[in-house]
Backbone:
C-alpha cells in the first residue's frame, strides 16, 4: 500500500494546480499553429523531471518483481526461446519459426546480448534474466521522455511535465516495461517517430522516417498510422515534398534491414511478411485463436479512449496525436482476431494528448478547471485500482512455474522433467530452465506411469499421489515432486523442443 500512496501523492502534486498562479502565454509554432506555454523556472522544471523519472524507475523495478498479469505465451516462445536457441543451441521451436512467418531480427539481436553475457560469465538465468529485464526497463523510459518532449512542443513546459508524469505511471506503459516484444518496441518507436515528425527540420524528417521503418519491420499492422506520420511531416514543414522524400527514403532504408535478415534466414527478402499475410488471410490461422467484435478495443481500454476523446476538445493542438490513435484503433478493429497488446502504440500518444489541454485547464482562471482536476483525480483512481487488482490466474501460474524452475535448477540429480495437467503455454521455456534435458508435457499422467528416466514432475496443486514420487514443495497452483529412487541407468525420453503445430506450411 505504501507504493500506491506515494504514486498518488506524486501525481496529485502535478495535477493540483501547483503552478496555477503562473501566467500562460501564447506562442506560434514554426508550422503556424498556436501552442500554449506554461512558464516554469528552469531549475524547478529539471528537478521535477528528474523526480518523475526516479519514481518511474522505482515503479518499474518493483513491477518486475510481481506476477506478470500481461503474460502472453508469445513473449516466451517467439522472442526469448528463439533467442536462447541461437545463443545456446536449444530452445522451444514455435510453428512460426518452421513456416517462416517471423522475422529473426529482434530474436537475433537478443541472442547477441545473451551470447555476449555468456562470454563474460553471465550465461545463467539468474544473471542474464535481471540484465535483460533491466535493459527492457531502461528502454521503457524512452516513451516517457518522448511524451515530455512532444507535449512540451505542442503545449508548453507544464504540459510536458504532466505528460511525463502520466507516462511514468500509466498502467499499460508500466506493465509493459519489462517486455522486449515487437508490439512494445514498435509502440516506443512510433511515439518517437511522431515526435520527430512534429519538428520542422529535414534532419528530424529523416529521423522520423528511420523510426517509421523500424516500426514497419516490428509490426507491419501500424502501416496506416505511419502514413499519418508522413502527412504530419509534410504539413509541419510547410508542405515540403523534399522532407517527405527524405522521410520515405530513410524509412525504406530502415525497413530494408528486416528484408536482409529475411534473406539471410529464410532465403528471400521480406518473405516472412508475405507468408504472415498468406497464413492469416488465406488460411485464417489468427482466427483459430478467436474473433472479437469491432468494439473490442473500446471495451478493453475505456478510460484511455475516453481521455483521447476529451483531448479532442483541444483539437487544434492535439490532432497530431489523436489522428494516429484513431487510425490504429480503426485498422485493428477491422481485423477479426484482437488482443490488447496489438494496439499498444496508442498509450504513449494518449497520455501525451491529454496533457496538452490539461495543462491549461488546471489553472485557477480556467473555465474548465473542475474538468481538469476531475481528470487528474480519475487518473489517480484508475492507476491505483490497476495496481490493487489481483493478478490474473495465468500470471500467478507463470509465477509459480518460474519458482518451480528456479528450484529445479538447483537440483543436481535432475535428468528429465515431466509436467502433467498444467498449461503447456505457461511453461517458462528453456530461457528460464536453461537445461538441455528431456521435457514431457501432457494432460494426464500416463496409465503405465511416469517414464523411468523422469526424475522430477510438475503437477497441478491437489493432484493425487503419483506412484514413486514425493512432493518436494507445494505452490499456490503447482506442486514439484521428485522420484523417491533415482536410477542413473534408467533410459531417458528423447529430447524434443518442438511446439505443437497448429499450422502446417505446405
Residues:
Amino acid at each position: 500500500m505504501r507504493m500506491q500512496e506515494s504514486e498518488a501523492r506524486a501525481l496529485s502534486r502535478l495535477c493540483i494546480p501547483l503552478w496555477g498562479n503562473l501566467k500562460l502565454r501564447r506562442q506560434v509554432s514554426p508550422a503556424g499553429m498556436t501552442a500554449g506555454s506554461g512558464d516554469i523556472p528552469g531549475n524547478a522544471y529539471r528537478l521535477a523531471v528528474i523526480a518523475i523519472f526516479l519514481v518511474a524507475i522505482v515503479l518499474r523495478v518493483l513491477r518486475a518483481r510481481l506476477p506478470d498479469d500481461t503474460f502472453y505465451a508469445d513473449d516466451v516462445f517467439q522472442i526469448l526461446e528463439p533467442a536462447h536457441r541461437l545463443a545456446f543451441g536449444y530452445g522451444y521451436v514455435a510453428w512460426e519459426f518452421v513456416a517462416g512467418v517471423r522475422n529473426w531480427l529482434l530474436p537475433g539481436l537478443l541472442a547477441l546480448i545473451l551470447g555476449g553475457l555468456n562470454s563474460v560469465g553471465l550465461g545463467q538465468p539468474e544473471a542474464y534474466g535481471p540484465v535483460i529485464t533491466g535493459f527492457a526497463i531502461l528502454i521503457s523510459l524512452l516513451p516517457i521522455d518522448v511524451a515530455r518532449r512532444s507535449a512540451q512542443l505542442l503545449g508548453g513546459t507544464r504540459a510536458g511535465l504532466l505528460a511525463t508524469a502520466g507516462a511514468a505511471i500509466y498502467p499499460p506503459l508500466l506493465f509493459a516495461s519489462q517486455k522486449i516484444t515487437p508490439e512494445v518496441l514498435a509502440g516506443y518507436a512510433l511515439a518517437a517517430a511522431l515526435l520527430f515528425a512534429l519538428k520542422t527540420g529535414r534532419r528530424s524528417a529523416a529521423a522520423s522516417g528511420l523510426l517509421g521503418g523500424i516500426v514497419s519491420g516490428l509490426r507491419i499492422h501500424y502501416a496506416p498510422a505511419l502514413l499519418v506520420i508522413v502527412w504530419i511531416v509534410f504539413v509541419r514543414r510547410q508542405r515540403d515534398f523534399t522532407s517527405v522524400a527524405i522521410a520515405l527514403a530513410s524509412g525504406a532504408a530502415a525497413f530494408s534491414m528486416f528484408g536482409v535478415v529475411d534473406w539471410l534466414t529464410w532465403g528471400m527478402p521480406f518473405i516472412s511478411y508475405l507468408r504472415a499475410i498468406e497464413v492469416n488471410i488465406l488460411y485464417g490461422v489468427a482466427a483459430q485463436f478467436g474473433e472479437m467484435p469491432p468494439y473490442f478495443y473500446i471495451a478493453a481500454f475505456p478510460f484511455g479512449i475516453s481521455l483521447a476523446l476529451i483531448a479532442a476538445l483541444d483539437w487544434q493542438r492535439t490532432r497530431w496525436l489523436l489522428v494516429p490513435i484513431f487510425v490504429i484503433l480503426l485498422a485493428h478493429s477491422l481485423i477479426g482476431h484482437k488482443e490488447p497488446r496489438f494496439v499498444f502504440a496508442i498509450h504513449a500518444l494518449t497520455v501525451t494528448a491529454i496533457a496538452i489541454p490539461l495543462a491549461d485547464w488546471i489553472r485557477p482562471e480556467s473555465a474548465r478547471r473542475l474538468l481538469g482536476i476531475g481528470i487528474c483525480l480519475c487518473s489517480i483512481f484508475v492507476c491505483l485500482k490497476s495496481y490493487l487488482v489481483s493478478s490474473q490466474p495465468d500470471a500467478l501460474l507463470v509465477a509459480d512455474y518460474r519458482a518451480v524452475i528456479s528450484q529445479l535448477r538447483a537440483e543436481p540429480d535432475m535428468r528429465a522433467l515431466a509436467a502433467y495437467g498444467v498449461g503447456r503455454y505457461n511453461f517458462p521455456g528453456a530461457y528460464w530452465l536453461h537445461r538441455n534435458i528431456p521435457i514431457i508435457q501432457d494432460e494426464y499422467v500416463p496409465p503405465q506411469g511416469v517414464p523411468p528416466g523422469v526424475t522430477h514432475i510438475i503437477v497441478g496443486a491437489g493432484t493425487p499421489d503419483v506412484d514413486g514420487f514425493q512432493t518436494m514443495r507445494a505452490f499456490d497452483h503447482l506442486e514439484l515432486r521428485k522420484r523417491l529412487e533415482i536410477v542413473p541407468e534408467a533410459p531417458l525420453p528423447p529430447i524434443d523442443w518442438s511446439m505443437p503445430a497448429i499450422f502446417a506450411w505446405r
